[in-house]
Each structure stands twice: as structure tokens, then as C-alpha cells.
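Note to self: the last two entries modelled the partners one at a time, which told us nothing about the interface. This time every component goes in together.
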Amino acid sequence: MRSTLVGICGILFATGIVVAGTTDTKNPGDLHFKAGIGYDFVSQEYFYDSLAYEDTEAPLTSSLLKKEYLDDKKGLIYIRFDDDNLGRRMFEFGWEQTADLFRIIGDTRLTVGGRRTSVTADARMEIKEQYKGEAGAGEELEVYNGRLSLQRRFGNRLTGKISAFAEKVSFDVLDDFVYNYTRAGGQCDFSLFTKGFNSIFGSLTIERRNVPDSANLDYVMIRSSTGYMGGLGNARLSSDIGVETKNYKAGQDQDDYVLLSLSANLRVPVGPVYFIQPEISIEYFNFRSELFLNEDYSLTRVGLMAGRELDFLTLSVGPEAEILGVKNDLPSDDDYMEYLLSTALDYYSFGQVFVMFENQLGLRTYRNNPEYYSDFSFNRVSLIGNLKIVDGLSLNVLLSADWEWHSVDSDDSRLYLISSGLTVSL
Amino acid sequence: MKIVFKYYIMTMLVIGLLIPVMTSAQNIDRARNQFQKEYWQTNQVINRAQNVIEEANRYRHLELVKIAIDASGKMLVQAKQLQEKAREQLNATNVTNIQIGNNQTTRARDWAWKSINIIKKASDKIVRQAEENENLVVRQLEKTDQLINRLRDEFKSENTGNRMASLFDSARENQRRAWELYRNGNVRPALKMSNQAEKSLRKIGELLKADNKAHNRLRNQLNQLEIQLMQAGESLQACDSDEAVALMERAQHAYQEACNFTAQNQPKPAEQAIKNARKFMRKAAGLCSDQNLLENRIRRMTREMEQLTKEIGPNSSPAMRRLMEEAREHLRKATRLCENGNKEACAANIKAAQININKAKRIAGM
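The predicted structure of the combined assembly is written out below.
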């Protein structure tokens, strides 16, 4: 397996160089190299009120304690050929290596046609292989996906696009929860530009998933959405409404649902530098079955941010609330209300520095005093940053941390995500 | 009469004895009914717990659910045992036993509820992890994928260069990792990671739009600057200022730099170069304005007179000296008039000075 992979990589690597070298030798800017180091870490800690389980305390508690999903120090090298720097004809090959596994990534895009009609083919592959120690379920995988799209402009304002897509995911080691699957489907999109560059867009997707080892997990999904992005008076509105239905092959309508969703975000300028930004999002899941895990529920989020825009800096602060309501004959344990104060800072200076920082401090209260849930306060911090140190040398960072402090101490939980990379691009 | 009284007393005694007995029997019936009602409610909860365990068995392949099912099963056994004991008291004829049965069935119901809740909680941790279920995570992942595709198209259609490519690449990389976490069943970290990727992609989208606007604005500014440079170049042909010519060359150079920076998608240095070009062009135009032209001519004629005085030397004729003195006087007047903004009188004095100088040159045979 490993030698096959290395062989495939070698061929891809050579192909990349040959294609890049022979297509346009006069323009070396079309060929990009990227190399670097990185560190990824994902960890979750959560605890349970073990007293509730008496003699089952030990195994249950140990199953629910800290878990590290990812802890990789890696080296990486990428080569990309992009003949006009517009991504119309692009080939990318990447190799990432940690102390015990390697990952190979291939990505291509080919667009033919002009401004009026064009056809785009996208293909992507990823192979992850562990060469040291015994790989657990889900740790070695192969992913292949592709998409073929035909895009056509009707006049200057209307654009239509139809696509067909497919994906195959397979793991070397399976368990009942980590399963191979294929997905395939089609999609139609349209976008209509009105005066003033406002845009109305819509999409219809049909997808079928096939899980060879468990027919119950096969499904057919249909999703439709439409939205508007553009001006509303002197404000800017971004909104969409959608409906989605998923029909699993399992009997008794198990897990089948219809989802209705709505989201809207309005940014209203107040003077030359200040703005307010009300936003709302509603999701309603309606399950067809009466199984206990298939309870209908709605999730509503509302927020009102206010902020100031400076040259490169945007600061905003405001309250948000989230309400989960579960439809149940009895008062549901899951019903909750969450209140939070969100503070955000974005900084961007012409490709040198990019920083997005957000902090959410809040409280969640469960409405029906559930026996096994406890109210908690939380702090959620996220930082996304990109710093161009010198030409070609850049640092990427993603940090995310959630802390939950429960009224029952033993329910406290933490989630940490770190993803970072220091890369040189030529 | 005695007999009647005797019967009356006996009847009253019987009634007196029967009433408490009948009342007690009614109380027992009421308590039993209440107990039976509690008992059937407990039965319903036990049946529900039984169903919950059966349904949860579908997820038994998940270690945590398996453990929870086992724990739940033990709790349900406790519930059933207590309920069985309670059942034995269903036909009890005394209040004490009915109360014992009632207590047993209530405890049995508590165990049955615990049995339900332990599975619900465990499956929530796995399947829904509080508010995040698998469907939500998949939708989030697909939403972020769509955003990536849309942005890719924008990268394709707009000449954005590589300035945001590294941001875009790292967002794609985080999304790829989110999918990997999801495929391994780690839904909550997957959701979090994909949310972060979406957030940075949305910001990149905003920046792309702003960048395109800035690019278009630069293009417009460059077009305007090009026209202004052409017009200024034409008007400078009439101006004989070397300094102005040099400044115009610097303006042309700055314009070229601005074009190059714009092509390389470096708006900040491009804007600076445009500013420089405008600054040099303004200075050159200033030098060639009417006022400056007159002042230049005064300076040039002053130099010319100094040169002429040196060349003629001490042997000049009185007429020549007079002409030169008059020319100096005209230039002094011209300077004063120009300073006061009286351009016409200034120009007339310059012209008069020039006539005197020309006459002096003719006398000197130059």
C-alpha cells in the first residue's frame, strides 16, 4: 500500500513539474512552491456526574474524560501550477508528514470556455497513511471527489450553473461508527445581479449517499435555498431561506427529517464610521418518526452588534441569544436559553497582517431543571491570524478555546483547537 | 316498650360499629385506587424505558452508548424488581401494605426515569453532543464547502493576485481538517473547526470585494492621471523651465510605478505613487504658471544682464550704461509689481527691460 502511494505521489509530482515546465517556461511565476512546518492540536475534556451511575462509575467516567483527537507536528511541501494566476488551469500537489503518518493531497481545476459559457472540472484527492504503529479506525483514509460544472451567462445580469459531483471516502480500518461511503448528486444554481450590484441567488441540490456496510445509513437528500445579498436603503442585507429533506433507507422513517432554515444579517451604517448589525437565524427540524432520538426541535439565534470601522480595523460588540426548544409531550431536558456578550476585532492591512479575534462570554440556562444537565457560564475565544513576516514567509494561526463552568463542577468541559503553519512560498 | 328500646339500642350499637368499619373500607379502597394509578403510571415509564433501551441498541456499536445501555439495563432491572414487589401489594387489604406498595412503585418509577435519562444523556454526547447533531455538522461542512467554491470562482474571475491566496489556502486547510474530524466521528470539534473556516472565508469574501473596489478605484485614478499628465505635458511645451521638465519626468516615472504596483495588486504603494505623480505634476505646472513664468523671465534676464556687464567690461559707452541702468530699473519695478500680483505692469516692465538689453547688445555689436 505504502509503496503504491509513494509511486502515485512520485508520478503526480513529476507530472506537476513537467506540466508546469513545458506549458509556459517563459513565465516562472505560474509555478508556486510552498514549504513549511505546522502544528495541529484538537482536544476535548468533559466530565460526568459519576454518582448517578453507581457501580458503572468507572468505565463510564473514563469514557467521558479528556480526549485528544489530533496532536500533529508536521512538515509540508506543496507545488502548484497555475498558468495564469487566475485558477482557471490549476494543478496542486501536497505532501504533509508527521512523526508517524503522511498525507498526500492533489487538487486540480480546469476551466475551458469564455466569459459567456464555461465548463469547469474540479478533482481532489487525499490519502492519509500511518506508517508507524498500528492505525486505529478512521486514521488511514482515502478521499476522492470531483465536480463538473457548466456555467452560462444570460445577458449581463443572469448566470446559471449546473453541476454534477461525486465523492468516495474509504478507510483502511473500519468500526461500526467509521464507515466507507460514496456520495453523488447534481446541483443547479442561479444568480441574478440587479442594479447596484445587488444579488439574488438560488440553489437546488439532490444528493444520494451510499454506505456499503450499513444500508440504514444510505440516504437521499434534497436541498433548496434562495437568498439576497445587497443594499436595502443605505444598509446592506444578507439573507437566505432554505428547505432540506433527508430520507434514510432505514425503516420506520428513522432519522428522516425536513429542515426549514432562515437567516438574515443587516448592516446599517450610523454615520461615516459606526454601524449596527442585527442578525437572526432560525432552524426547525421536523422528524418524521416518533423515535426518542428523533424529537423535533427549533434553534433560534438573535444578535445585535454595534461597531466602528477604522482604516484597517473593525471593532464590534453586542448581545446575542440562542434558544433551543424541543417538541416533546413532557417538559424536555434539552430546552435551553443562552445569553452572551460578543466582542469582535478584525484587522487587515493589505496582505501584511490579517487578524480576526472574537470573544463570547455568556450563560446557558436549562428551562426544565433537567436531572442530567446543568446550567453553565462559558467563555469562547477564537483567533484567526495570518502574518506575512517577509516576502514569501508567512505565519498562519487558528486558535479556538471553549470553557464551560457548570453549576455542577463535574460537568465542566473544555475544547481546544490549534492549527498553525509557518510557510515559505516561492 | 322495653323490647323496643332494647332493639333500638342494639341497632344503634350495630350502626355505631359498622360506620367506622365502612369508613375504613372506603379509605382503603381510595388508597388502593391511588396506588393502582401510581402503579400503572410506573408501568408506562418502565415500558418507555424498555423501548428506549431497544431503540438505543441501534447505537450499541458506540462504546459510550453500550456502557450506558448496560447501566440503564441494570437500573431497569431494579425498577422492575421494585415494581414486581409493588404488584404483590395491589390487592392488599390494609393501609400499611398499600403504602409500602405505593412507595415501591414510586421508587421503581424513579429508577425507570434514571434508566431513560442515562441513555438519553449518553446518546446526546455521541449523536447530538448537546445541541450539535450530525445533520447540523454536515450542513455546516457543506455550507463552508459551497463558500470555498464560490470564492474560488471569484479568485478565478478577478485579478486578485496572491495577496489573499495564503489566507484562502489556510481556510481550505482548516475545512479539510474539519471533514477529517467529522469522518472520524468527532462532531463537535468538526463543527467548531468548520465554523472557524467559514468565518475566515466570509471575511476573505468581504476583503475580495473591497479589494476589487480598490482595484477599480486605482484603475480609474490611473486613467485620470494619464490624461492629466498628457495635458500637463502639452502645456509645459510652452514653458521653458528646465526644473519643470525634470519634475514632469519624475511624475511620469511615478505614474509608471503606480501602474506596476497596480498590476502587482499592491494598492498601498500604488496609491502612494499616484500621489507622488500628482505632486510632481502640480509642482511642474506651478513653475509654468503665468506668475512663475514672469518671475523666471526676471531671473533669467537678471542673469543675462550680469553676463553682459561682465562681457562689456569698463569700456562701455555712456549710452550703453544708461540703457543697462534703465533695464535694471525696469526689472526692479517688474519684480515689485509681480510680487504685488500686478502681472500686466510686471510683464510690460520686463518687456521694456528686454528692449533696453537688446539695444545695449546692438551697440556693443553683439
